[in-house]
Design a protein that fits this description.
- By secondary structure, the protein is an alpha/beta fold.
- The chain has 22 helices and twelve strands.
- The strands form three sheets. Strands 5-4-3-12-11-10-9-8 form an eight-stranded parallel beta sheet. A two-stranded antiparallel ribbon has the order 1-2. The protein has a two-stranded antiparallel ribbon with strand order 6-7.
Length: 678
């Protein structure tokens, strides 16, 4: 009995506890609803505030939304406890259309309440666009400021975020008469690839191992076929295309100088240009092209790549460059003199291109453009070469439009579907230079990038790309100009610029320093490269790129040559005891001569040591024939002049007595009608 009473009491206690919890929960929920903020369209307001705010517009809206009726509010609506508020369910007549309308009014109320202007999406977009333009302008201003600090030319339209770079970036390797060692070229090609090269333009001239009737053309130090094979396999493994450059009209001195081919000359005394009117000329050219093209085609040359390599890399010979520039001797032989020069040139190009199309239809043909510039549109169109060749337009000066005017671009685009451009990284500003002027070559590259952007759209298929030429000699008979190792800094700067479409001012993202293994900049205060100062050369003297020893050797040679020339000029032109007059009459002061010869002895000793080290230094890149040629051209002349001055000075010092003045006239004066009696 007692247990039943206790159980009943316990159940009532549990019921009481549950009822209490439900009551507390209801109180908490009402407090939450009373104070919670409601957000609509980004405008925030509390229910409590709406109930107590008193604004008639707000009250009207809540009434129309169906949250309470008019009678539930007191006059002031100021009751702190919310007495008199009666929430009701919206009536059925409250449609969704009206609800949307009321919610729009709600958003307008919130805007009025916070007193903020309404911002549209268009306003936000305009503000964002304006901000982006401002940031872009600031970025470009900073970029141009850095360019000026470095001495890099500022070209309108070029910079980060500008137009994309040329699709093809070719590095021209001129091998004529001074072949770099194969091991050296194999070290260079990965660097070129890193800097953005897409292919090589190989000009062999007399460095190819010709065979059969053409075997006399090959130089004694020409590459053999295995060495050519190493170049091609390395290029293909790196994904670099290879375009052979074969001269087929002008610049054939390496062939026409020989007795065996003398009969093919246009002018008997000048072995520069081929006669286009001889059948034997076309027979010769077909054999020349056949030997070079076949060796560069993997399908024909089974040694070029293994079968699995061919399947993996699929190297293809897509283009052949047939030269045809600077044909100065034309229309002068008995067969040609009665024909129009322009027609002779165009007919020859047409004939050579036809031979190539018949035997190698897959190949596209490139020619230099300089012989076409003066020709009329009608002449070019009627020749038919527009469907056979692609011109490579070359200018190595800074002002490209001075040589290729807008009218020429218009003419070319009307004849050819596409074209190429060509700048230079060496061999363009002096036949006897030792180091290329980097700033001039960089500006030439930058100008070309701007021209490609502006003129490329004229052509139906655009411009194919940019070739960076590096001439080793101005022609077959000229001396060596800048050696390839001394031009690597110039190549690196120009190639990295062409590959980006602008010059990257950031030392960390510009690959020049890393590719040439240069030390990182020690301070951000100073530009990492300064092309407007003499320190530019010394910047790269601290690098360890392939051939950097030769680069430093050349810099030392240039310094000594400058000192020697200044010294010789001073003692012979500006001082009074070692002039040509003193030397001719053996008339000078021994003590004065001895003083002047002190500098001669120092320079003579320094240059002699340099000459002794030259062969071993150059051996890293060149054979002994090329090293010997360079030493004879560059070092021996200044060495001989210093030795001659030393010999003359020693002779002047031996004389102990001298004749009375005036000194006698020289016998050569008699030829001018001057003698002692006059």
């Amino acid at each position: 009995m007692h247990s039943r009473i206790l159980m009943l009491f316990w159940r009532k206690k549990l019921l009481l506890l549950a009822t209490s919890l439900l009551f507390l929960l209801a109180l908490w929920f009402w407090g939450f609803l009373y104070t919670t903020h409601v957000s609509d369209g980004g405008k925030i307001v509390s229910v409590k505030e709406l109930m107590m705010g008193g604004a008639s517009r707000h009250e009207s809206l809540l009434q129309r939304l169906g949250f309470y009726d008019d009678s539930s509010l007191d006059d002031g609506g100021q009751s702190s406890n919310g007495a008199g508020v009666k929430f009701v369910k919206p009536t059925g007549s409250f449609s969704m259309k009206n609800r949307a309308k009321f919610y729009n009014e709600w958003e307008a109320i919130m805007q009025d309440r916070e007193e903020k202007p309404h911002i549209t999406k268009q306003d936000i977009a305009k503000k964002k666009s304006s901000e982006e333009l401002r940031m872009a302008a600031e970025k470009q201003n900073h970029y141009e400021h850095e360019l000026k600090k470095m001495g890099v030319p500022v070209i309108a339209g070029l910079g980060p975020g500008g137009h994309p770079p040329p699709i093809q970036r070719l590095v021209h390797l001129d091998l004529k008469g001074a072949p770099p060692k194969i091991a050296y070229l194999k070290r260079l090609m990965p660097i070129m690839k890193t800097l953005g090269a897409t292919g090589l333009l190989l000009e062999y001239e007399d460095m190819f191992p010709y065979s059969g009737a053409l075997s006399p053309i090959a130089a004694k130090n020409a590459y053999n076929k295995n060495e050519i094979l190493e170049i091609l396999k390395t290029a293909f493994a790196l994904g670099l295309t290879v375009i052979p450059l074969v001269q087929t009209f002008g610049h054939l001195e390496f062939v026409l100088k020989l007795q065996e081919f003398q009969h093919l000359r246009e002018v008997e005394d000048a072995p520069q240009a081929l006669c286009p009117s001889q059948n034997s000329s076309m027979i010769f050219l077909e054999e020349l092209l056949d030997q070079i093209i076949e060796y560069h085609t993997p399908a024909q040359n089974e040694n070029l790549l293994h079968k699995e390599d061919i399947e993996k890399l699929t190297p293809k010979l897509t283009h052949i460059h047939i030269g045809c520039d600077e044909v100065y001797q034309i229309g002068q032989c008995s067969r040609c003199k009665n024909r129009m020069k322009d027609q002779l040139f165009l007919n020859h190009v047409y004939n050579v291109a036809t031979i190539i199309n018949k035997k190698w239809p897959q190949l596209k043909i490139i020619i230099w453009d300089d012989m076409l510039r003066h020709m009329s549109l009608d002449t070019l169109q009627s020749s038919g070469i527009g469907n056979l060749v692609e011109p490579m337009i070359w200018v190595y000066a800074e002002d490209i439009y001075k040589f290729i005017q807008s009218s020429t671009w218009e003419k070319y685009s009307a004849v050819f579907k596409t074209a190429w451009a060509a700048s230079a990284f060496k061999g363009a500003h002096g036949e006897a230079l030792l180091v290329p002027p980097i700033r001039r070559h960089l500006e030439n590259t930058l100008r070309w990038l701007a021209v490609i952007q502006g003129e490329g759209s004229r052509f139906a298929h655009g411009l194919q790309g940019l070739a960076l030429t590096g001439w080793q000699r101005y022609d077959h008979f000229a001396i060596l100009c800048e050696l390839l190792p001394t031009a690597l800094p110039s190549l690196a700067i120009c190639l990295s610029t062409a590959s980006r479409g602008y010059f990257d001012v950031n030392a960390k993202t510009n690959p020049v320093l890393s590719s040439l293994t240069c030390p990182e900049p020690t301070s951000e205060r100073h530009a990492w490269i300064e092309l407007h100062k003499d320190t530019m050369l010394s910047t790269f003297s601290r690098c360890m790129f392939p051939g950097s020893v030769i680069y430093r050797f050349i810099l030392r040679l240039m310094t000594l040559m400058t000192e020697a020339k200044e010294y010789i000029d001073e003692v012979k032109q500006q001082r009074g005891w070692l002039t040509d007059y003193n030397i001719r009459h053996n008339f000078s002061s021994g003590t004065r001569v001895d003083d002047l010869l002190g500098e001669d002895y120092r320079l003579l000793n320094s240059i002699t040591n340099l000459a002794r080290n030259a062969a071993s230094t150059l051996a890293e890149v060149y054979d002994h024939w090329t090293s010997g040629e360079f030493i004879e051209q560059r070092i021996f002349p200044i060495l001989a002049e210093l030795k001659n001055l030393e010999r003359i000075g020693e002779g002047l010092k031996k004389r102990k007595t001298w004749p009375q003045r005036p000194l006698p006239y020289l016998k050569p004066f008699e030829a001018l009608g001057i003698d002692e009696k006059t």
